[in-house]
């Protein structure tokens, strides 16, 4: 009974998104078929372009060129951003000395720094990796930092009262409490990583999905240019959904542990 009820709830959660997406595709198809193919397209044309790119291997080659820099840059941002955020949140002096750098970087038009990145790192995979790192590290640092600041002081005081060291307080009290904020920063960082990948490929290497998008748009192939754009969007959705699933599993484990 419970399994059937859960299945019905899951089905109901999918009804509205699927219905909305189907209506969007229908309206887009109607509008696209009546428009100028140079400046508009329709889902059927985009699907045909997608199948052609998939069959020719061009799309998979572009994905294989884009994905390593995206994942490596994002992983590096996570490995650096989370410890930096915890450090800024735990140390008032560090927050005063270095916090404004990340706040300023988060508010900066990072695309303006593309020429500098090209001069510093060349046109290879390094420039794409570094752009992904810089684009997505700020939400990770800032969310972790703010999350640490929001940890109740009483919890830290209890840890100190029981003789816990600074490292034990950070690992046993602060990090579990700040985990939701960290995961929020990771989800925001995914979107930034996808954007940085596309920008870096368009402005520098002319490879991967971004380069494919630029070449198609220059030849006024609207349906063809939408294929890499939608693939990039899909990559962001898949990676964000994966993080959301990890978050649900972590919190479910925490709730189960607390009920024991």
Q: What does this entry show, briefly?
A:
This protein is mainly α.
Overview of the molecule:
It is built from 10 helices and no strands. The protein has helices at 2-33, 43-56, 58-90, 92-106, 114-121, 125-149, 153-161, 166-205, 208-218, 222-259. Helix 3 (58-90) runs parallel beside helix 6, helix 4 crosses helix 6 and helix 8 packs parallel to helix 9. It is globular. 30% of the residues are buried. Residues 253-260 have low confidence and may be disordered.
- Main sheet, how many strands, which sense, barrel? none
* Residues in β-strands, percent: under 5%
Outline: globular
> Measured on Cα atoms, how large is the radius of gyration?
23 Å
Indicate the topology.
Elements: H1 2-33, H2 43-56, H3 58-90, H4 92-106, H5 114-121, H6 125-149, H7 153-161, H8 166-205, H9 208-218, H10 222-259
Helix pairs in contact: 2-10, 3-4, 3-6, 3-8, 3-9, 4-6, 5-6, 6-8, 7-8, 8-9, 8-10, 9-10
Comma- or semicolon-separated keywords:
disordered C terminus, 10 helices, mainly alpha, 260 residues
